[in-house]
Amino acid sequence: MGSSAAKSVLFEAIAMMGKAFASPVRLELLDLLAQAPRTVDEIARASGQSTANTSQHLQALHAAGMVTRAREGTSVRYALAGKEALSLWLALRDASVARLAEVERAARDYLGPEVDTIGRDELIARMRAGEVVLIDVRPREEFDAGHIDGARSIPLAELEQRLAELPADREIVAYCRGPFCAYAHQAVRTLNTAGRRAQRLREGWPEGQLARRRATKPAPRTIDRRARS
Length: 229
Hints:
CATH architecture of the largest domain: 3-Layer(aba) Sandwich
Number of strands: 8
Order of helices and strands: HHEHHEEHHEHEHEEHEHH
Low-confidence stretches: 225-229
Mean pLDDT: 92
Structural class: alpha/beta
CATH topology of the largest domain: Oxidized Rhodanese, domain 1
CATH superfamily of the largest domain: Rhodanese-like domain
């Protein structure tokens, strides 16, 4: 049987990953990397942090196994460390909403008044029926890195100028980075003000990534034991 000291070392090693979540800045960086891989400078601009501060937080996330990095010339590009890292970040985010009233209140204050929402299953059914148009209102570079099948890229900053591109006889569904992203909320308000019917997707692209991976994951092989007898 292992010693208590060895067990402490084991849990201390696991705690290294938990410590990565102790900084709100690092959580925001994870949320950004859930959209697309980025260089340090790109993440710094997107988060409003200094390059030096961003680099330090990314190094901490790398040490905790939450991100990978690769050198590209004079730049370093970071990405989430696979499905496990993405699933862990989303689980923490969703658990915080479910268990901490402070998170729910802060989200309401940040997002503003509620807008109509739609779930993924209903969206898929209505898209197949030709009843809705799905728009991705994130920045174009995030759309190019990955997006929900069937979505059109109309960044929030361009929405008012591109309303004519959207059919007037169908409802519009907007999505962005996830439930804490204000882009889709604002897009729905902009569309409603223009007299268009609109909702926001409750989920965002990160959840779409996981759904796509589950759909394409090969089924486990089964063994016909009768054939061996």
